[in-house]
Each structure stands twice: as structure tokens, then as C-alpha cells.
């Protein structure tokens, strides 16, 4: 039987919020891609577009769409990002028909085809008499390059190449939640509550409708924890945003809130809060984003503060989430600090931009120091041998230090890591 994949698009543009419902077949999207064509872009006018997928539900708990709907509503209503569009891919995503693609393969293909900034998806599994819910947030490569990559341009006297630091991992296990029967019931009640449209923004107000997911609707106002909705077909009323999603529902909601925080970072650089029931990966990503922000600002105080952020991760006995990402950031911070101090020691007051740039390009740090830094990174790379950013940086540092053989080897390994 051909598996249909319902797509529900949630829209938020500046001062108005809205949701547009569109039915699509996932198989149709994949067939278009197989023909070398590009599917129609959904919500093309939104600057920040998010894809939320029904959670993979191999044990048929019936919660796949419910969890995705909660996550989609939270990202839409509480990310505090203007020009946002959330595409809710609703329906089963298990392998079907002649397709050998699994859940994640389908998520990845559709995410890439739609060129979204962020994807949210998950898995529901039975563990004994409990349910385990895994929630992921994934940053596709174009968004990673645009919003989560930091470059330190070396002076021309040191080769003029850029050293790189990128967010790792870009597929983040945000939350692992175990629920008993009572928790599952609370989750269902919360999902029903936030989908109930009432005549006024209060719990005792008469019910007017259930939130329509098959038509366009707009959020035209807000009051406390309620949003005012209007939709085609005469639906006009109020629905709660968070207040009715309590207990286990509220705990699950934290994962979607974190995902919305990652999106907000793209818009204004605010680091997502990682306090709550999150994985080490989620906390590590938040600290990496904080460290990358300090690198981007690049003042002496910022570069010193950066050490405080990443030191706890570097002092762990086990390799931290993201592999060598923190060690790579530390190496770049040390080089940025050395370059900053060297520049300030020679910079004159009142120099214009051209003079400052010329002065920077004349800086030459110790080649021995660069070689020592490269050897330290090479040792660290053993724990993360497919980190292309670290390998690229090794190539740049070895080249400046005059070790062409090691620079060429690192460059080849970096190219291999990118293509894998």
C-alpha cells in the first residue's frame, strides 16, 4: 500500500503567525528527487524555515504525530524569531513499498530538498513497561556554514589562510525521556489541551473547535499563555501555548524549546538555555555556541572568558560530545589571543581600517609555536579522526611551520572526511 505523507506548514511572519495545511506524498517527493528534479519549496517566503517530522514509532504507540505536533507548535509560538515557517511532516515514515530508505534517510533527503534551517525529529521505543522518547535537532550543512562556522584569518605573513571551527555534532540528541503509563497519559492530555480552541483565553471558556491541521490558520493575537487563532471555515478562538502542557508533557516540551533556541541563535546569536532534562550533547552544543560567540567578538576579555566555558569539557576523562570540537576551539582561541596581543603591541592610535589591516597582515607568530600547536592538535585528532575542521587546521599550521609533508597529508585527510 502506498504510504502517504501529510505535510502541514506552520507560518509566522513578523507580526502575524499562521499555519497552512497542505497534503503531500512523501513518496512523491522522493520520486521527484530520484528524477533529478527539485520539489516545490514550501513556505518560500519565510527566512527561518524548520522541518518537524512525525516521530518514528516502530512499536505503534500512536504518539508519533502527537509528539511532532507539540514540538511544531512550541517552535512556532515560542522561538521569538520573526519570519519563521515550520513545516510539519505528518504521517508514518517507516520503509515502504520498493523504497529501502529508512526513517532517517527520508528525513535527510526531504530536509535537504526543502533547504530548511533546522530539522526536528525523534524516535519512540518501548523499554520494558516504559516508553523512551528520543528527540533530535539537526542543523543541515548550508545552515551550519552560514550560522555555526567561525573563521580565524591568518595574517598574510603567515599564509593568509583561515582556520575553522564549526558546531559539532550538527545532529544533536537533545533529550532522552522515559515515561511510565501515567506520563504517557499526561502527554496525551497536554497535546489535546493545546489543540483545543476556546471562545476566550481561559480554561473554563466554551470549546469552539479543535485546532485545524488541514487548512490555513493565523495567530492574530496573544494574551498571557494563549494565542488567538483564525482559520478558514469559520474557526476563530483561543488556544493555550504551554500552560496546559504540564507534567510529562512539559518535560517533553523542553526539547522543542531547546530546538527553538537553536533557531533563535541563528537569528540573533542568543545561546539556547540547556538547563533541564537535556543530554550532554545538548549542553555541549550550548557551550560551544557560547564559546564561538566569544571567538567571534574576539576581545581580550572574551578570549580569556572562553577558557572558562570550555575547560570543564576538556578536563573530562572521556571524549566530550562533538569529539575534538572543544580542543579545536581552544587551539583557535589561543592563536586568536596571540595574534590580538601581538597586534595591540604594535598598533598605533587613530589608524584607519586600511592601516590596521596592513599591520595585521605583517604579524608573524613563532613557527615553532605553530608546529607545537599542530602536534597537539594531531594528537587530539586520534580521538576524532574524521573531523574535517581540525584536519584543515592541521594542514594550515603545518604549512606555516614549514612541514609540507604533514600539511599535504592533513589536507588529503580533510578532503576525505568531507566527502564521507
Largest sheet: 10 strands, mixed
Strand content: 15-25%
Approximate helicity band:
40-55%
Order of helices and strands: EEHEHEHEEHEEEHEEEEEHHHHHHHH
Per DSSP, the total helix count is 13
Termini separation comes to: 34 Å
Spans of at least 5 consecutive residues whose pLDDT stays below 50 are 1-23
Q: What's the number of extended β-strand segments?
A: 14
- Tell me the Rg in angstroms: 24 Å
Q: Describe the strand arrangement of the main beta sheet, using strand numbers.
A: 9-6-5-3-4-1-2-12-13-14
Structural class: alpha+beta
Question: Which descriptor suits the 3D outline?
Answer: elongated
What oligomeric arrangement do these chains adopt?
single chain
The average pLDDT is 85
Describe this structure in words.
- The chain has 13 helices and 14 strands.
- The chain is an alpha+beta fold and 420 residues long.
- The chain has a domain at 5-144 and 174-240.
- The strands form three sheets. The chain has a ten-stranded mixed β-sheet with strand order 9-6-5-3-4-1-2-12-13-14, with helices on both faces.
- β3 (48-53), α2 (64-78) and β4 form a beta-alpha-beta unit.
- The radius of gyration is 24 Å and the shape is elongated.
- Mean pLDDT is 85; it is low at 1-23.
